[in-house]
Amino acid sequence: MNDRAQTTVKRVLNESGLEVQQLYTADDVAASGGDAMIGLPGEYPFTRGIHREMYRKQPWTMRQYAGFGNPQDTNQRFKYLIANGQTGLNVAFDLPTQIGLDSDDPLAAGEIGRVGMSVDTLRDFEIAFEGIDLEKITVSMTINGAAAIAIAMYLAMAEKRGYDVKQLRGTAQNDILKEFIGRGTWIFPVEPSIKLVGDTIEYCAQHAPKYSPVSVCGYHIRESGATPAEEMAYAFCIARAYADEVIARGLHVDEFAGRLSYNFNIFGNLFEQVCKFRAGRSLWAKIMKEEYQAEKPGSMWLRMIAAGGGGGLTFEQPELNIVRGAYYALISALSGTQTMALCSYDEAYTIPTEYSARISLRTMQILIAEMGLTETVDPLGGSYYVETMTNQMREKMEQIIAETDAQGGIVKLVSEGAIQAKVSAQAYKMQRDIESGKFPKVGVNCYRNDQEDEHPVDFHPYNEDDARVQIESLNRVRAERDAERVTRALAAVGEAARAGTNVMPAIVEAVKAYASVGEITQELVKVFGRYQEPIRF
Amino acid sequence: MNDTAQRRIRVLLAKPGLDGHDQGAKVVARAMMDAGFEVIYTGLRQTPEQVSRIALDEDVDVIALSSMAGSHLPFCRKLKPLLEANGLDDKLWMIGGNLPAQDHDALRELGFKGIFPTGSKLDAIAAYIRENAA
């Protein structure tokens, strides 16, 4: 630290634990490792962006998370968002679908269509995407435990509509390891869950090479209490676990790594987030090149969706979340992410209404149309502060990865509940710091309104009748389908699982026969068993 | 306050239904332990039958649910008769999480007297339990 940077007021640490100086100069950049890792956009190590032209060529994809009720309801919301200028879709599924239960399962009662759309069979996918051009609009699916089935349904639906699956783009979240840390939509134990992810990667590499079968999520690990540096470091550890699984089957890294993508969170200190993304981009490139000997540049790209995260939004004075969302979108644009999504201002209360979803979309459009955010690549590049902090964040992430490896690796730590316990302890400390006022949060512990109980939020209505309609629809499909073909296809799923071969071909055949999410899951549970959660916090 | 002088207040903290968002529940569990209560945290995906059985087996004073995904009313409607059948209607029933204000009266009528929506303070939850648990 040079003399001018000597702190004269008080010491500041960012959330990742790095000291923030009062002033940065060229000396600080040099002391933090220099400019060796800066480079140029589109060139290794990609600190400044994975493409040379970035948003000049094409602005980020705008992909709001949406889905509720029956596939018909969701199809309407999709069309509404597309009509308003959204350029991608991110499908929300209800909880029964996400954990492999059919709508008529007793455990699904009260949860059907509530936090996302309900899916039982391929018929529901056909309805949900009816009238949507799958070449123009790329579809991302937020599903993990039952992701293999959802991917099979998406590919089968597209094929049925005449699309060439070899050319089909799209993404499934399909990151089960982070579900054990946060979010909790697991089904099978850890080992077979990783095997299933491997099956989807291998299957897509061979049959749908432009489809992204996994979007590794730092996002939910951050929501669970991780720091920004941990968010990205743990995500990389998880991505390495999936890569190792697939490489052990004999695939070369360049056969699949180009289709791995990422999902990260945005809230908190603006500069810490921007540096997180810049640092992460170069660290992932380094990991792929040096550790995995990737040769194709695409294998080294940290392709990502960055979402203005729920963890930063507040229940108090919810309209302030519109302002926070605008800053999060700005951070995303300054960070050179590929896809942007924002939690809507009312999400602490309800799933977004058309009105609040449109505000989120317009927020991103303002950045493109009015603010000049698409004109210059990596506009913060070269800032003494940003380059120094980027170097320091990279070093911090490398440190966390090395510690994780030294403790036995991410799979072991997640299986034991150790990561869960660590981030949960941090979440508790953060909540205490917010309640004591140590960590300022506008509207929560400072600048509160006198009248806190009047919130201008409209609720998205939940239709109690959705469940009945969905179950009737499932029963109709069951009555109409070829029962023998279904029985054969389900038996084949079980056989593949028992044999330890790739289950995807059998799942694809099963969904084409209109076997349901619950039926296919049951076949897998018979072989794999169910996950038992280690209770650690 | 009667027998709380002899034994610590026992709190069952349950995650009802299929909702996987447990960050808040775990934060509250830690806070209740720090407040001096014994906490039994169930983990995810508890059915009404499971919650009711654990509450009975563990002889708890407080039955608290953490619900973030909107299914609180259907769940509580199923849980209420089960708790009553187990003779647990004299215990303190609480619920926290994403609970729209419009649902609070219905929750209270179902017997969930302590309602702590998103934004509630940890110390307020602990104080409420200390005040109201038998």
Description:
The complex is a heterodimer of chains A (about 525) and B (about 130). Helices cover about 50% and strands about 10% of the residues of chain A. Chain A is of the alpha/beta class and about 525 residues long. Chain A has one domain: TIM Barrel. The mean pLDDT of chain A is about 95. With about 130 residues, chain B is an alpha/beta fold. Chain B has a single domain, classed as Rossmann fold (3-Layer(aba) Sandwich). Chain B has a 5-stranded parallel sheet, with helices on both faces. In chain B, helix 4 links the parallel strand 4 and strand 5. Chain B starts with 9 loop residues before the first strand and ends with a helix. The interface between A and B is large, with 41 and 34 residues. Chain A: It holds the Pfam family MM_CoA_mutase. Chain A: Keywords: Isomerase.
Sequence-ordered SSE layout with sheet pairings:
The complex is a heterodimer of chains A (537) and B (134).
Chain A: E1 12-13, E2 19-20, H1 26-31, E3 61-62, E4 65-66, H2 71-83, E5 88-92, H3 95-98, H4 122-128, E6 138-142, H5 147-160, E7 170-172, H6 176-181, H7 190-207, E8 211-212, E9 214-217, H8 219-223, H9 228-247, H10 253-256, E10 260-266, H11 270-291, H12 297-300, E11 304-308, H13 320-334, E12 339-342, H14 354-369, H15 384-406, H16 410-416, H17 418-436, H18 466-480, H19 483-499, H20 504-512, H21 517-528
Chain B: E1 10-14, H1 23-34, E2 38-41, H2 48-57, E3 62-67, H3 72-85, E4 92-97, H4 104-109, E5 114-117, H5 122-132
Parallel strand pairs in B: 1-2, 1-3, 3-4, 4-5
Helix pairs in contact in B: 2-3
Domain B12-binding (chain B): 8-134
Cofactor (chain B): adenosylcob(III)alamin
Protein name (chain B): Methylmalonyl-CoA mutase
